[in-house]
Design brief:
Strand order of the largest sheet: 1-2-9-6-5-3-4
Shape: globular
Bound molecules: nicotinamide-adenine-dinucleotide
Number of helices: 14
Strand content: 15-25%
CATH architecture of the largest domain: 3-Layer(aba) Sandwich
């Protein structure tokens, strides 16, 4: 067993991230011995890692899909907690990907006005993104994450050994969010190395998770700096919607990053040298995924998008009064307020045409 250690920041809230360089099975043994725990476990993770084990503490299996990230599943968990006499002095320990950690945080924040929460993220995306920063959420009436609050976990235990069972698509989803954060941090060399080796090391995971935690601790409520983490996402939401949510999130964000670079260039916020640096990274990000090229042919159909585009742009929940985009200013990222919806529409349609021509 190698070293385990904690890092601890304190600004808007306190969360301890523990990087456990041990086998997932050993981590589960340790967690299982926590005497006040109530476990919420992704059912796939349970199937992969809990077979043949008896858990002495109560546990509930989470169905990890977007339809089940719901009030209905929350109610089932509330009933389970009540039936087993969960009190505020107990600790909810969620083990799973972002759906499990978001849902568990929502339940922990609302049950008896707040139960202690620990998270054990098991997907790459949840290790570098969803498990960090205290956003709790469920979907409602087909709207993603529309019910939620901020409820940072007391402890987040990251054990990369869980990644050995993750499939390629899920791995890529996490990789893209990790690279996105490195781009925001201007850590281009680290991003380049990850893309060249197609491997994100434990040190990289730790680096990105700590950086995200730092940003969220300075801006828990998403009023300023934290919004930069939406880089590429406004465009990605449009692509996901056009594809009826068939397009994997990672591919949508990777394309979204590319659109953000090109729009920044069009707005003369980026010079050609900086554009080349960013473009080279993002092209690598797109090229290492075979699926992204297949989707390219289906997705970028300017005939389909034309009539829907305005609605999709205005529908983004971040666009309450004006269109807010995260764009590049030189190599920095900043929030850009777009006053002309026509300009954005024209750009997106032109990009679709350009990509279609080149496919
Ligand atoms: N709170 C935030 O700040 C934040 C940020 C980004 C995304 N999110 C949310 O995160 C969710 C997506 O999270 P995700 O990508 O982790 O997806 P997920 O939780 O749906 O997990 C993806 C799939 O991987 C399986 N899985 C989990 N761990 C595994 C493992 N170790 N081995 C094999 N399979 C495993 C799950 O059962 C599921 O089928 C979305 O709902 C999104 O809204 C939240």
């Amino acid at each position: 067993m190698s070293a385990e250690y904690s890092c601890h920041f304190s600004t808007e809230f306190e969360s301890i991230i523990e990087f456990a360089s041990i086998e997932a099975n050993n981590l589960i043994d340790k967690a299982a011995s926590i005497s006040d725990a109530f476990f919420l476990i992704d059912e796939n993770v349970f199937r992969l890692y809990f077979q043949g084990r008896t858990l002495d503490r109560p546990y509930f299996l989470i169905k990890a899909n977007e339809q089940e990230k719901s009030l209905k599943q929350s109610e089932a968990i509330y009933s389970f907690l009540l039936k087993n006499n969960c009190s505020r002095s107990n600790t909810i320990i969620a083990i799973g990907g972002g759906i499990t950690t978001d849902l568990a945080a929502w339940v922990a924040s609302t049950f008896k006005r707040g139960v202690k929460l620990w998270l054990v993220p098991t997907t790459l995306l949840s290790m570098v993104d969803a498990g960090i920063g205290g956003k709790a959420a469920v979907n409602y009436q087909e709207l993603k994450n529309v019910l939620g609050c901020f409820y940072p976990a007391e402890r987040i235990i990251i054990c990369s050994d869980f990644l050995k069972t993750l499939d390629e698509r899920e791995y890529y989803n996490g990789l893209v969010e990790g690279i996105k954060t490195l781009i925001i941090l201007k850590e281009f060399q680290r991003a380049e190395r990850i893309l060249n080796t197609k491997t994100i090391t434990d040190h990289d995971i730790e680096y990105i998770a700590r950086a995200k935690l730092g940003i969220c601790q300075r801006d828990l409520h998403d009023k300023g700096e934290r919004r930069l983490l939406n880089l590429g996402h406004s465009f990605a939401h449009i692509f996901e919607s056009i594809s009826n949510y068939v397009l994997p999130h990672g591919i949508a964000v990777a394309w979204g990053l590319s659109f953000a670079v090109n729009y920044s260039y069009e707005k003369q916020l980026l010079n050609v040298e900086d554009k080349t640096i960013l473009e080279s990274l993002i092209n690598k990000l797109l090229m290492i995924n075979n699926e992204s090229l297949n989707y390219k042919k289906i997705l970028f159909n300017d005939d389909i998008i034309g009539s829907k585009l305005r609605h999709l742009i205005l529908n983004d929940k971040k666009n309450e009064n004006a269109i807010k985009l995260v764009l590049f200013e030189h190599l920095d990222t900043s929030i850009y307020t777009e006053v002309s919806i026509e300009s954005l529409e024209r750009f997106i349609i032109a990009e679709f045409k350009r990509i279609k021509l080149n496919s």
